[in-house]
Amino acid sequence: MVFLGYGKYARADRIYALEPITDDRGGGRRTRVWIEGVVEPIVASRTERTILHEMGHDVATTSPLIDAALDLAERLAEQAETGRVDLTDLGRRARRLLEASAKPAESQQLF
């Protein structure tokens, strides 16, 4: 069972589509969830990433680096929509991501 918020649950094997709500997200609404056997989508208070995580779909791809990159992309998109992009903050975050993803220098073998 996957918790959708608002006291609603659905069987993971019955969920066949998730749609993030991008407009009119008032009242904690985050995602539309289509469930087999239910005509209208259910509005969930959780993000599609959280619901997918509970369904077990991101077990192999869970990475703090990917989460940070997605957060950076979300911040950039939000700031671009408002017309106020803080390049200093975004540049610092991007630099940290690049440093975290860089391969460590190969150490010399002693033997």
What would the keywords be for this entry?
three-stranded antiparallel β-sheet, flat, 3 helices, 111 residues, 2 domains, alpha+beta
Helical run tally: 3
Count of DSSP strands = 5
What fraction, in percent, of the residue positions are helical? 25-40%
Series of secondary-structure elements, N-terminal to C-terminal? EEEEEHHH
Shape: flat
Strand content: 15-25%
Rg of Cα set: 19 Å
Q: Gap between N and C termini, in Å?
A: 54 Å
Strand order of the largest sheet: 3-4-5
User: How would you state the average pLDDT, rounded?
Assistant: 80
Largest β-sheet summary: 3 strands, antiparallel
Give the class from helix and strand content and strand pairing.
Answer: alpha+beta
Uncertain segments: none
Total domain modules: 2
Detailed description of the structure:
- The structure is a single chain.
- This protein has three helices and five strands.
- The protein is of the alpha+beta class and 111 residues long.
- The chain has two domains: 2-55, no CATH class; 64-101, no CATH class.
- The protein has a three-stranded antiparallel sheet, with no helix packed on it.
- A hairpin with a 6-residue loop joins strand 4 (31-35) and strand 5 (42-44).
- Helix 2 (64-82) packs antiparallel against helix 3.
- The protein is flat, with a radius of gyration of 19 Å.
- The N and C termini lie far apart (54 Å).
